[in-house]
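testing teh design pipeline on a random one, pls ignore if ur not involved
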């Protein structure tokens, strides 16, 4: 009798759980004006930094948990903090990002692993110059008093050679000498989004 009762209870749980609706993701739209994306590139003799404008984006939440999202970067807006027209022109040229042909880059979230407090680890697909490669980075997600959410990642390391950007890469051209530019550059992003 006890075995039959346990089996019946188990069957009830399985059947009833089939009718519980899954948690539906809620879309939060990124406010491109309130969001920011900055970059740092290093070479043997120094470094450069600047900004790039976000074009659009969405973050997906299940309750308060980040579950997905994507954003589009307007590569034609690459700016050098020192306002060097020469550097900006070179970054937009085929040696680097080829913005005439590839006006946008994209990032799509594939997985979010929770950490302590507001911290998460995000893994996703970054597409630059039509080439997609996976990147992972730490981020934080903070809910604001006005109902918006701010997601920040202070240090996203990107290996430019994975996207066909080989200009003065020591790994590709060992005899480049002191004109070498490091293969990895850094991005820092702040996304402000609201339902």
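output:
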């Amino acid at each position: 009798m006890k075995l039959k009762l346990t089996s019946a209870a188990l069957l009830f749980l399985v059947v009833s759980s089939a009718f519980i609706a899954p948690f539906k993701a809620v879309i939060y739209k990124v406010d491109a004006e309130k969001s920011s994306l900055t970059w740092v590139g290093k070479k043997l003799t120094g470094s450069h930094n600047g900004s790039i404008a976000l074009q659009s984006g969405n973050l997906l939440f299940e309750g308060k948990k980040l579950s997905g999202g994507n954003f589009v970067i307007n590569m034609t807006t690459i700016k050098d903090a020192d306002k060097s027209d020469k550097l900006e022109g070179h970054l937009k040229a085929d040696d680097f990002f080829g913005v005439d042909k590839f006006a946008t880059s994209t990032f799509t979230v594939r997985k979010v692993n929770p950490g302590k407090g507001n911290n998460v680890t995000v893994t996703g697909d970054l597409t630059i110059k039509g080439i997609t490669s996976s990147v992972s980075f730490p981020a934080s997600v903070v809910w604001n008093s006005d109902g918006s959410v701010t997601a920040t990642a202070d240090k996203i390391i990107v290996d430019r050679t994975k996207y066909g950007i080989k200009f003065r890469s020591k790994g590709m051209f060992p005899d480049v000498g002191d004109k070498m530019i490091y293969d990895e550059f850094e991005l820092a992003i702040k996304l402000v989004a609201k339902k």
